[in-house]
Amino acid sequence: MLPEFAPIHLLYLAIAIVLEIAANVLMKVSHGFTYKRPAIAAIACALAAFTALSFAVRGIQLSVAYGVWGGVGLVATAVLGITVFHEHLRRSGWLGLGLIMVGVYLMKFA
Amino acid sequence: MSSETARPRATMQVTPLQENSVRYWLFMAAAIITEVIGTVAMKYGAHQGSRAAGLAVMFVMLVLSYTSLAMAIKRIPLAVAYGMWESLGLVLITLCSAWLFSEDLKPVKLVAIALIIGGIVLLERGTEEAPASIRAGDDHAA
After folding, report:
1. Nearest residue of chain B to residue A110 (CA atoms)
2. Mind listing the pLDDT tens digit for each residue in B89-107?
3. By CB count within 10 A, which of A26, B10, B107, B122 is most buried?
4. Are residues A57 and B46 in contact, defined by beta-carbon separation less than 8 angstroms?
5. Cβ–Cβ gap B113/A100 under 8 Å
6. C-alpha torsion B105→B117→B87→B76, nearest 10
């Protein structure tokens, strides 16, 4: 954490994560950029997510912010994939989810 | 004359597979490098008071990054490409942050990064697409 850290930076990070999840879901909907419209929407969401991230890194170290952002975004995307898109996680997938969560926790509170 | 024209065609036929795969991995590398450059420029701009310039560089780099990712996944599976993009990006950005912004590289942070990368790889490999029947059912319902 940087000296200028304030709760507002966590809010920016949260906004960045929500936009990242939207981008990931749209990426899935675009079936690997096959459908152009969701692909373009995904890129727009990702650009907005990085913009929010740029506000967060004023108070949070870039490596921490990027790690937490990517990790939480992937876990939430996986959960949405299971609940909304009927994807199935093998045991290795669940293990991966667990590892990411432990890693993000360590990154944040190290 | 005819032998000269036949020769390049023959080499094209021998190595199309190798040429193609190398090209797609280069797209993959370009996607990761542009992502890292964009993110570092954004952080640099935010701290040097030239936020707009940093953001402008980041936008250009990210659009390039997504474009090369889209090219790469024509041949590389999306799960592999996306996992690499996230995990290699995380490693390079952490190293660049330590080098350029003198952020710490404590052992706990290194362990955390290793766990996140391991998790990304397992998550991408352990996810199965929904069966086609369920997806078709969704389309009918919509």
Report:
1. B108
2. 999 999 999 999 888 888 9
3. B122
4. yes
5. no
6. 160
